[in-house]
Amino acid sequence: MRPETLEILRCPYCGSRLELVESMHHVREAEAILEGVLACHCCLFPVVGGVPVMHLHPNAALAREAIEAGESDRAFRALVSEDEERAARFTEAAAGHNTTYRELAETLAEELEGDCFLYRFSDPSYVAASAVVRAVGGTVLANGGRAIDACGGSGHLTRVLLELSDAPVIADLYFAKLWLAARYVAPGCEPVCCDGNAPLPLARGAFRFALCADAFMYIWTKRQLVGELERLVDRGPSEAAAVVITHAHNQLVWSHSHGEPLPPEGYRDLFESLEPRLFPEQRLLDDVVAGGPLDLSRRSDAEALAADPALTIVATRPAGTVGLLRPHPLGAREPLRGDLRLNPLYATERVGSGLRMRLAFPSEDYEEEYGACRRYLPEEVTLDREVMEAVEEGKRTPQVLELLRRRIMLDMPERYY
């Protein structure tokens, strides 16, 4: 945890600042805090593996006691999983130098929603959300400022925020997801372990851009979380700021993993200090599949909003809509930051000097929930030797760029799959 992150941390219960308890066991690396205990006026919170754990759930208490005793491995296992066997497997695998994200995710099975995260970089909700994040975040962060990915899982969209903001914060209740985000998916982010159903442990106005993706319908205290996101970007009426919520399930339409969704007008009514605009996710995906622009000037009528299984919400101050709620070109991708890899949704076989790829979903459930990826992923594609050589050499040829645009090829984090 960087000193700058400690500066914006606040106790979620009393709201006071926190400081490292120097008299207790702690480990620093340069100025960063890797292990220790943070204190406020009312509580003690552990820092484990560089992650401040800002809640009082039983596993956090066990981790704090272990850190106080100087037993960092025990603290780590307590936070990884309540299942001691799974925690031990994850801890052992995490110690390996060549362990992949996939291998670590498999040790925790359903606790990490394996299929969802492993294939995340090409699922339809991610494709639409990443375009919205680049458009809105790129606009409000153009002149600097910080971003937060609330309920950010293991950091797939936080990785997008790294293109736009230095050291974005990722907040989530599940420590193992945050640990994977910081070390595999979005190195350079700042993880904070906290409960989205409680006040967020961060200072008012610390951010210009706040994101909550694919998680909001699972939050019971929705009004409180929206109020917290508004508070985090409350930097005064003259500064650009925005809150974005993506893939919020629609109460009026059945969907997988339905959660506890609201109807469109219910989501709109949650906002008090910002003005929300709602978009049907499928129309945003239409824009992306067509190659852009991503039209955020669109005003969707009640019928269109009521019919879509998932909604995207962009909330800002009326003065902040200038240059934001407009058509955004989907420009050239940033330089490759990870490994250029074949989309793992494809089964492959050699055909002469080329490669034949066939779409093969990991399960019927996955296909049913994310089958809309067929809109940009062909059932079958063959790559010739020239393209394969360009991929192996990491060249951005026109053919490779088109494969990236269609998500047949993916720019994936190192040691991900």
If you had to describe this structure to a student in words, what would you say it looks like?
There is one protein chain. The protein is an alpha+beta fold and 417 residues long. The protein folds into 3 domains: 3-80, no CATH class; 120-328, Vaccinia Virus protein VP39 (Rossmann fold, 3-Layer(aba) Sandwich); 339-412, no CATH class. Helix content is 33%, strand content 21%. The chain contains 16 helices and 19 strands. The chain has helices spanning 3-8, 58-68, 72-80, 84-94, 101-108, 114-118, 124-140, 156-161, 175-185, 222-232, 264-269, 281-289, 302-307, 364-370, 385-392, 398-405; strands at residues 19-20, 27-29, 32-39, 44-48, 51-52, 147-150, 169-172, 190-193, 209-213, 242-249, 275-280, 294-295, 310-316, 327-328, 339-342, 346-351, 354-359, 380-383, 409-412. The protein has a 7-stranded mixed sheet with strand order 8-7-6-9-10-13-11, with helices on both faces. Strands 1, 2, 3, 4 and 5 form a 5-stranded antiparallel sheet that branches. Helix 2 (58-68) packs antiparallel against helix 3 (72-80) and helix 3 (72-80) crosses helix 4. The longest helix has 17 residues, at 124-140. It is globular, with a radius of gyration of 21 Å. The protein starts with a helix and ends in a 5-residue tail after the last strand. The model has no long low-confidence stretch (mean pLDDT 94).
